[in-house]
Amino acid sequence: MSHPVLEVRDLRKVYPVAVTEDCPDGEFTALHRESFALAPGGSLAVVGESGSGKTTCARLIVGLERATSGAVLVDGVERGRGRMSAARRRRRGREVQIVFQDPYSSLDPRQRVRDCLAEVLTLHFDMGARQRDGRVAELIDQVGLDERQAGALPRALSGGQRQRVAIARALAAEPKVLILDEAVAALDVSIQAQVLNVLADVREATGVAYLFITHDLAVVQQVCDDVVVMRSGRIIERGPVADVLERPAHPYTRRLLASVPRPGWTPRRRATEGRPPAPSGHPLPPVSETKEALP
Amino acid sequence: MSVLQLAAAPGSPAITSRDRRFGALTAVSCAVVTLLTLAAVFAPAVAPYDPTQVDPSAVYQGPGGAHPLGTDDVGRDILSRLLYGARASLLGPAIVVVVAAVVGTLVAVTAAWIGGRFDAFVSRALDVIFAFPGLVLAIVAVAVIGPGLMAPAAALSISYIPYIARVLRTAAIRQRNLPYIAALEVQGFGAAAICARHLVPNLLPLLVVQATVAFGYALLDLSAVSFLGLGTQPPAPEWGLMVANGQPSIVAGHLEQSLSAGLTIVVAVVAFNLLGQGLSRAFLGVDR
Amino acid sequence: MSALLSIDRLRVELPGEKGTRTVIHDVSLDVGAGEAVALVGESGSGKSMTTRAVMRLLPEGARLSGEIRFDGVSIPGMDRRALRRWRATRVGMVFQDPRAHINPVRRIGDFLMEGVRLDRRLSAGQARERVSRLMRAVGVGDVDRRLSQYPHELSGGLLQRVMIAAALATEPDLLLADEPTTALDVTTQEEVVAIIDELRRERGLAMLFITHDLDLAAAVCDRIAVMYAGSIVEERPAGALTPDASHPYTRGLLAARPEIGRRESRLRTIEGRPISAFEVGDGCAFATRCPMVRDLCRRERPAPVHVTGGRVACHFAGEAEPQAVAGDGGAR
Ligand SMILES: Nc1ncnc2c1ncn2[C@@H]1O[C@H](COP(=O)(O)OP(=O)(O)OP(=O)(O)O)[C@@H](O)[C@H]1O
Ligand SMILES: Nc1ncnc2c1ncn2[C@@H]1O[C@H](COP(=O)(O)OP(=O)(O)O)[C@@H](O)[C@H]1O
Ligand code: SF4
Ligand SMILES: [Mg+2]
Ligand SMILES: [Mg+2]
Asked: Chain A: residue nearest C44 by CA?
């Protein structure tokens, strides 16, 4: 494998939480010293049930959250943390970009699509107005939107269209890595397919690498080369998508695979619950109830 | 989650299409506010008399004829005094609201952005200021600085900051946690740029609503200060002052001065309040 | 066979900014006793509105026409008392977001007891016993502790089980499940649908199951009705739909979903976006996105025609699609 474009080294994140009987030390480890790497132009899936630490990982990589320990490297260079100069902040922006799950709150409701993209271009690149307009048009075309939508406010756009705008905005910075955190989960089936195709086209055209976060294994296989499977803040299995989906080694991966509805599928109860509720005081849904059944 | 469920989130089409009538009451209150403002600006052009012109030959004239609202105890035209009075009576609340809005927004946005202990401290401080009655603060200010428009206006500006900042802070925290702000941070925009270009503009409707309602209350407070003789000083016309001035005449059966000034205050306060509520419905889709 | 629930030419109009908007257009659907029927469609197609019409939970100002009968009794014709009784005893409902439908400041036990004691003259002890049995039936262990907890202390999957227990508390004949698993991840989803499926079979419950996932619908239902823009475009036995979908929209949905073990360079998409019922003109609702659209489609709304085991509303139902559009084209 060539030199990885993104590398996560022993990344760990501990959240302070209210002290309860489940959490006597008042600490909750959302990510346990995990490492993985993403090849240039590659596409790595991070899968796992809700609460397994996928979003935490993404927020640490883009710098929205500060890691308890460990490092994030882009092109072999550790990413800056904490306060930094405007120039360094911008350079970081050109390394990794992110698209969030909820298309309805990912865009400034008062900003037209074109202005949103132009603002990002102005921040990162020194270009004239003509050149900038040309680039905006190019980005809009790249994600499959048209001129009319470019002049629209977000509220005039559907969920799928908004998500494309969010992708275009992220691509405007010409990042080396694009993180997609459940970016197609909120979309309708027919729209989801459109956006997945757009993502495939974009990767082919720009060579950007994807870190694709999802709990949907069917989608993984459509867009990713490699996969890491997460559970309770730990990576429990990793490998090329084809291998992992065909010969899952870990029982949890098998379980994840078995629960995807498909023709001829019948749902089965695998366990009764038993796990205590997650520490209160944090806003996210805790780990699902099925865990205790697994080794 | 399905897209329709998400569409019910604030700021999305589901809300936009909600009932946002600009009701008749709002239209009337908007007209009243506009008229009052015009009166203040064009008082010299529209007032029939000089508001301070004493006329011993026309003391206590009833409404009608040459003096539509009559004259006061020294023969000054009440209508002219009301029209000119709009200047001081509206300037005071305007100062209060502008200062409170600017400072309140800055405080609210800074607290929301930084969060943590700083935010907790700011919230506590706002609660403390809020607990202090504005009128008392105004009286203290007059005692220290001396009577006039400026001392009470300055004091009330401070006591109105929580009124703006508390509501804005809550809204700012909500905006702060939306993914679009996170996306801008990841792009590399600085905090000041994000707040000035995105966060604050999205708070503007709320700010306007809050400031409009505050304007009404500030007007009432400042009138009370003048009524006590601590605000604008005679013989300059001001509504609260006019209510006080007209008091001795009431026993003599001449209600015109106090009544007309008092009614003007009530109409103005109610108009600002209704306008604020109407704007709230129109901008935010909610009843305050 | 007379159906347990029979929806006949249901039409729902809601007040909008510019006059009324039709959100449900001419929906007819039967659910037999003990039968499970799925209502599948994309966001805004009117699935929830249909169930809300059945439950008489329509928003203020909604206009309903057509008939809905339960066991032969007209639901729109019920008076308040009859409606309340019917809701309390004959139907159970499970929603997509359990958290929004459970009072956050009441304990789980109180919430369930309320349901159990709603109608029957059970003693407190009997009621408590029944609640425990229900909780065990939906796979909740450690019942006593759970009953004393508050909703925010439970995960989404666990809370959805509580909702199912509550829906079953009065032993209804019909279960209305509106996307009960959409907010859950796949493993929890499997658990929850398995519970619903098992209990339904055990108790001979009829079910109207709403989802946007055709494969999920096929796994737990006997029949599937596919909705688009406020109308049912195809209704078939669950087994027949996947291999033999006749409506271009159903086929599009099936093809658009990535499938494990079938990687394609591009997914087949349905061009454009789903439209709402009130945006539909004279012709076929799907005409703006249909790869097979012809002039007739834009002029005339297709009436449902019978096909093996069901019905389809398409002028050219079952015809092969033109090859030119297959495989690609939708993305832009
Ligand atoms: N309270 C309301 N007022 C006006 N229109 C509404 C209201 N609720 C729903 N609608 C509209 O009715 C139509 C059908 O909505 P419905 O909730 O039945 O869709 P759905 O198929 O359940 O979608 P989802 O998968 O998102 O739950 C949509 O066009 C929607 O915008
Ligand atoms: N700010 C926070 N404080 C406390 N716990 C948190 C916080 N954010 C996330 N967590 C916890 O960390 C775990 C991982 O969360 P997350 O990364 O969001 O999961 P995922 O994206 O895989 O669904 C969860 O158990 C969640 O409750
Ligand atoms: S009627 Fe025409 S437009 Fe409608 S689904 Fe059939 S072929 Fe397509
Ligand atoms: Mg997440
Ligand atoms: Mg719905």
From this structure: A188
Tens of pLDDT along C148-178? 888 888 888 888 889 999 998 888 999 999 9
Helix, strand, coil in percent for chain B, rounding step 5: 75, 0, 25
Our CA-based measurement puts residue C305 at a distance from the nearest CA of chain A, in whole angstroms, of 25
Within a domain: B15? no
A 120-139 near B (Cβ less than 8 A): 120, 123-124
Q: How far apart are the first and last CA of chain C?
A: 47
The structural domain count of chain B equals 1
User: Is C259 inside any structural domain?
Assistant: no
Return the residue whose CA atom lies nearest to atom 2 of ligand 1. C59
In a domain, C130, yes or no: yes
In a domain, C121, yes or no: yes
Give domain status of residue C20, yes or no.
no
Contact B180 A110 (CB under 8 A): no
Distance CA A273, CA C142 (A): 9
DSSP state for residue B61 in the 8-state scheme: P
CATH of the domain at A80: 3.40.50.300
Give bridge partners of residue B77 from the DSSP assignment.
B71
- pLDDT greater than 70 at residue A84: yes
Show which subunits contact C, needing at least 3 CB pairs below 8 angstroms: A, B
- Give the Cα separation of B241 and C40 in Å (integer): 71
In angstroms, what separates the C-alpha of A165 from chain B's closest C-alpha?
12
ipTM here: 0.86
Which residue out of A55, A147, A163, A190 would a mutagenesis test of the C interface target, given it has the greatest number of C Cβ atoms within 10 Å?
A190
Domain assignment present for A148: no
Contacts of A186 in chain B (CB under 8 A): 1-3, 6
Report if residue A201 sits inside a domain. Answer: yes
Residues A70 and A12 sit within 8 Å (Cβ to Cβ): yes
Residue-range definition of the domain harbouring residue C142: 98-171
Q: Is residue A132 part of a domain?
A: no
Residues 6+ apart with CB under 8 A from A186: A101, A102, A103, A159, A163, B1, B2, B3, B6
Domain housing B73: 24-46+68-284
Q: Residue C141 has what pLDDT?
A: 78
Scanning C262-291 for CB atoms below 8 A from A yields 263-270, 273-274
Q: Is residue B8 part of a domain?
A: no
pLDDT along chain B (288 residues), means of 10: 31 36 83 95 92 88 86 91 94 96 97 95 95 92 92 95 96 94 95 96 95 95 94 90 91 89 96 93 72
Helices assigned H by DSSP within chain A: 54-62, 86-93, 113-124, 129-142, 147-150, 159-172, 189-206, 217-223, 241-246, 251-258
Q: How many domains does chain C have?
A: 1
Instruction: Indicate whether A113 belongs to any domain.
Output: no
The beta-carbon neighbor of B17 closest among C16, C96, C97 is C16
Which DSSP symbol is given to C258? Answer: -
Q: Which domain holds residue A85?
A: 6-107+175-291
All chains having 3 or more CB pairs closer than 8 angstroms to chain B: A, C
Instruction: Show residues of chain A in contact with B179, CB under 8 Å.
Output: 100-102, 105-106
Asked, for residue B55, whether it belongs to a domain, the answer is no
- Kindly report the pTM of this predicted structure: 0.83
Q: Which ligand is nearest to the CA of A52?
A: 2
